[in-house]
Amino acid sequence: MALQAIATPKTNPTTCDALLVGLHGWGANAADLAALGEFLTLPHCHMVFPDAPFPHPQSPGGRMWYGFPNSYDFRQAHDFEQQSDLCTSRQALNAWLQQITAETGIPLERTIVAGFSQGGAMALDVGLQLPVAAVLVLSGYLHGAIFSHHPPSPVLLVHGRQDPVVPLACAHQTRQVLQAQQVPVTYHEQDMGHEIQPVVLQHIERFYQAWRQAQAVGNKAGE
Question: Which structural domains are found in the chain, ordered by start?
Answer without folding.
Answer: 5-221 (3.40.50.1820)
